[in-house]
Fold this protein.
Amino acid sequence: QYNHNINHNLPLNLKYEKQYVGFATLPNQVHRKSVKKGFDFTLMVAGESGMGKSTLVNSLFLTDLYKDRKLLNAEERINQTVEIIKHTVDIEEKGVKLKLTIVDTPGFGDAVNNNECWKPITDYIDQQFEQYFRDESGLNRKNIQDNRVHCCLYFIPPFGHGCMKALHEKVNIIPLIAKADCLTPNEIKKLKDRIREEIDKFGIKVYQFPECDSDEDEEFKQLDKELKECTPFAVIGSNTVVEARGQRVRGRLYPWGIVEVENQSHCDFVKLRNMLIRSHMHDLKDVTCDVHYENYRAQCIQEMTSKLTQDNRMESPIPILSTPDVETEKLIKMKDEELKRMQEMLNKMQQQMHDKDQ
Amino acid sequence: MSDQVPPEVRPKPAVPAKPPNVGAPSPSSAFPPQGFGGGGASSLPPSAIPVPIGSHVASHGAGHVGGLAAAHNGGHAGSHRSAGGSILLGYIGIDTIIEQMRKKTMKTGFDFNIMVVGNSGLGKSTLVNTLFKSQVSRRSAGWARDDKIPKTVEIKAVSHVLEEGGVKMKLTVVDTPGFGDLINNDNCWDPISKYINEQYEKFLKEEVNITRKKRIPDTRVHCCIYFISPTGHSLRSLDIEFMKRLSHSVNIIPIIAKSDTMTIEERLEFKQRVRKELEMAGIEFYPQKEFDEDMEDKSDNDKIREAIPFAVVGSDKEYQVNGKRVLGRKTAWGIVEVENPNHCEFALLRDFLIRSHLQDLKEVTHNIHYETYRAKRLNENGGLHPISSNGTQESNL
């Protein structure tokens, strides 16, 4: 006899209702499938060397991703260009599997002339969009790998300012004040205000937290408000365990005291972690898919069609797909070849970058 | 939890350990080099404090970071084991993404489209109303019961929004009056096939647009319930023709309609015969064997495949039985209780269709049937190309 356990997941009050159909279990059904498949998340970190990026990532995800890293000295860095390095780690917690990819950008902002240091990063982001676009337009879509960058943590030095404009329409930017333990609370407040002003003034589109639902409880709404007022987050990371107030915690030991990473009165690390992982991870992915990727795709298509209409001196954009004719098919073939050429160029670039690594 | 890091010593004024690989501090850093250094092999002097997380004072050669597995501890903080064997304390919180997804699903709601196919009078509309405990069929939308039988199969789609437990569903019931009702029923499946493909085409066009909608409205048929007449003998040739042709473009669930005309033994025999005929004709009904993803799926689905076709009875009338109000059909010899598993298999169908496989029906439609259609279209035209959202010509469909 066929039997199933789904009824265990039904909310109690509904189990006994006469008129109950049962489709309220749909979120559970979706849940089951997602847990089986696992999730993925790609996080980029950008900022000058020594901002504490690696330490923060380790603190956020409780890993030690950078164990075998070699730090370069200033001379070695003179001729360095910005690299893109990916680290991937599989994390499992309470049965939920996450494939986390950290995209590191060593060399960013380290050169003497940093005018072009954004380019490798924007190129990388575009490449992932391009790859997804091709996969999505292809025939075999069963196992598309999503390598698109879902979020970029941008580290602003505690006594400087950054320039995020190059990235703001390609990826969700979360600006962070790095190494906040060298600032007093007042200095932090002033810096946050200044950064917020600059963001407004230059029209930089950083990641916006979605509005709270009207039916959320008051506590949640209050937390959400505090979160929004606290940006940009001032963070501290640590790879060391210290003893503070009778407990073993992540922290930094100074002669004048102990900084605790997870102490909310010391820094905003907990707020960042909660937002990034526990409440907004899904939304970050959604915004990447629905906004940044769609923008890229629309732009890409428009470029391609305008190029083709220029070349062919056609009157109108490409007609719809249900009326194929010789002219249309020629256009389609040209577009495909163009895509192929772009792909070959990208492969060459990647090969060059790879060779540089060696 | 046992600690594998050496016991910490009371903090003295810190002397930062200088890992050998670090060069001069970079100009932008105000601090001495922090962190636990450049290589896993560097062993810090035992008295160095604070204690680096993941330090390999005890063991060396952790190599690269491979998979980290969580040690599950009931409800609270799980700990993580890195490849090197040291424990990293704490709880990250990635399991909360499930909750984040759930909230999103509940907010956006979902579409579900169900088609019913079978001769007139087999109780299609009643069954759908019974399944969703609402008046959702086309009969309820105002068509008269004594409509003339149409000359060709018509397709009539009716939509309702149902809500339950905070989840909103836009249910569309697609009825197919006229199917199998003529003397010559040749190709009566054509309008149905055409309708199904039209929905795929609609979705495809949206997907290929330059500016796409955030959530493409889904009108594709997720499930087609095929009503087998309870003759007690065997399937009719129309049944086989239809299911053969359509099972590759839509999920078909065959059921035995009006099964209260058969005794339990007659029903079992009929089922066995029908199943054999389906097998011989090579008809892959839902859940299809080839799409079982893992052993758990396979074992669940095998049980269902054994029970198909479900022998159902539908009713939208309530009667009092043993002090309870039940849906049923009242006859002179007793009341057939629709939701009583001893009387018929309606409850099995409902649980299977709605409570356990609703999402899977949609996924198989999207990932398999729709992809098959799309691949065919791609190959036909020598490639898809996007259209602009303004200035499109009218479709030929």
In short: Strands of chain A lie at 39-46, 85-93, 96-104, 151-156, 173-177, 233-234, 240-244, 247-254, 257-260.
